[in-house]
Amino acid sequence: MHIEQIKIQNFRLLQNCCLDMREKTTLLVGKNNTGKTSFAVLLERFLERPDNFTYTDFPISIRQRILSIDDETNVDELAIRLVLRIAYDETDNLAILSEFMLDLDPTRRHTNILFECCIDKSKLLRALPDDPKERKKFIENNLSGKFLNIKVYAFDDFGHTEETPYYMAHRDQLEEKERSEVRALLNFQVIHARRNVASSEDAGRGAKPLSAISTKFFRKRDIEVDVDDDDETAGSDGESLEKLRSMLAGIDDQLGEQYAQVFGDFLKSSHDFLELGDLKVVSNIQSQSLIETSSQVIYGETDNFLPEHYSGLGYLNILYLLLQIELCRDDFARRNAPLNLLLIEEPEAHTHPQMQYVFADKIHGLISKIPNLQALLTTHSSHIVSKSNFEDIRYLSRLSPAEPVTIKNFHTDLSAKYEELGADGVALFQFLKQYLTINSAELFFASKAIFIEGTTERILLPLFIEMHDRENVDETAAGGLSSQNISVLEVGANARAFAPFLEFIGVRTLVITDIDTTKAVVSEGTGKTSYPACPVAESSNTSNETLKYFLLAPDPKEVSEFSDWHKRLIDGTASSDEGQIKIAYQLAEDGYHARSFEDAFVSINLEKVKARKDMLAGLKNRGTLDAFSGNDFYSLTSQILGKKSDFAGSVLYLALVERESWRAPKYIMDGLKWIHKN
Question: Which tens digit of pLDDT belongs to each residue from 132-181?
Fold first, then answer.
């Protein structure tokens, strides 16, 4: 038995979305302001604190209908809803679930629980003032509590195929349930992102969250063992607590003897003045109060330790999480519900990347030890994502502020898009998963992306971005390109593999690549055709598959069509800036059309390269520079460039330290302008 699906309607950014749940762990990811926190809040509202809904919980898109409510308004259409779809089979104990199974047909494998927060129209209309402005303020300030009806229903939508949801089309078929019945079926626990961990700055302020939660942990164990001392699960805990109590009783006796001596004069005076002969001072140490007041979490040897607030926030966060999970595990075991749901918000809080990797590796094992548990993690951490199973990932997407949030199944929805690519789609999808795992999953959280080919571009791109912001000061007044949430990835010639993924997550992307022109050469001996690299002016083809894919090159066998496309590629008319992806590659500049970044850069910075040749690493045959004339920069760069990364590093050094004012190739700067504006 498990929660198979969670549907949400009309709650903040989540106007109409659906989450497919994994049987063990589901990872909910997405950029900021896509509804991860709202998702967590709604679960807690309905499952734990149902009376806390207010006007601001309703999405902006329906608030005008709420403000203009009248006798004709259908408030069912405005209700905040949460639907849990529960899957089960014949091996499950259905005794508790049977309260929500409206049809006992043995072929059925699903049932649904609907949580609904609906406006009490008649009560609200009676309370509304007549003045329109006052009505608006009244609704905004008072739409909560008594003006909202919160109910729970069971329904069976087996065979329902209409576009309208079953709970809207068949209101009369909903069977109302008690919240106690839901609590018997489902135990929900949440560990919030805003965890109260304290750093060394909190020393002396009484901030000891680990000690506090360890006290809470002990208190809960102590109480539960007292209540369930006949329970086999109490076993070792009961024995340990009994030993502690026995030790404290012995300490009480010893302290009582000492107290009789210490307080002897006081007791004699009491007898003399008040004739209280039976007055005594005794020790009464309670285990709970002892833990609360006289224990602390330390780090190091007991004789040479550091208090908890001396630990880094990352360690404190992990320790706090582990204690919270232990508390949740105890609660799950005590209530023994058929369904257990644990929500952990942003486990990466305060934690450095390496610790996030460790946590991602360990958390699944820790959670798996809790019976009947489904875990739901929300995260902003690319490190946690990259260490997770991609089958577990669910992506919250919001293409624009005006559009609603959708929840996409990374594995099934995206793999389907790759299958549309044909025979190599499966291989491309496998490459994508492996790349994101090994290199970076930060694309999940980026607002924009820039793909580059190699090390040279990676070294120099920050310089070009800085140049863009400096040259476009008016356009960047509100925030330059360097201040935007942009992920830069070195993908080589594999940008094509990311195309469905970029569409899937809705990220604007600039692909900076080389035109990589080639020409057809027929061997006299074999008659076979090869396509060696050549200057643009001599070319008839390109070896760059990224260009061919994104700029829709026809089949080379269609000679006339391909030739026409190649001409458009060279003059720049094959590109399009209207879509989500822009391809930036070398175009003619200052009378020369470069084939690669290096000859493009040298062609527009020739005199500066000559002047700085002795300071530029990665150069060879430096004398060739002095003798160079004409514009065959393709041949020049092949003669003078040795290690490209060293050359790029020297260019960057001279720009930053020597204040050399290099020019950036126009195709790159035009691309940066596009990604900045879009």
Answer: 889 999 999 999 999 999 999 999 998 888 889 999 999 999 999 999 99
Q: What total of structural domains would you count in the chain?
A: 2
pLDDT band at residue 234, thresholds of 50, 70 and 90? very low
Q: Which residue has better confidence, 335 or 387?
A: 335
Is the pTM here over 0.85, yes or no? no
Residue from 89, 92, 85 nearest 108 by CA: 89
144 and 226 both lie in a single domain: no
User: Residue 262's domain spans which residues?
Assistant: 209-295
pLDDT of 169-184, one tens digit each? 999 999 999 999 999 9
Alpha-carbon distance values, 592 to 518, 533, 547, 654 (Å): 17, 17, 20, 25
Tokens (6 digits) for 174: 């909903």
The answer to whether residue 97 sits within a structural domain is: yes
Q: For residues 443 and 451, what is the distance between their CA atoms, to the nearest angstrom?
A: 11
Q: Which residue has the tokens 């020597």?
A: 658
- 93 backbone dihedrals φ, ψ, rounded to 5°: -80, 110
Classify each residue of 429-444 as buried b or exposed e, where b means 16 or more C-beta atoms within 10 Å of its C-beta: bebbbebbeeebbbbb
Instruction: Compute the distance between CA of residue 552 and CA of residue 93 in angstroms, rounded to an integer.
Output: 57
Q: Is residue 120 part of a domain?
A: yes
Q: How far is CA 648 from CA 457, 657, 662, in A?
A: 8, 14, 12
Residue with tokens 């927060």: 117
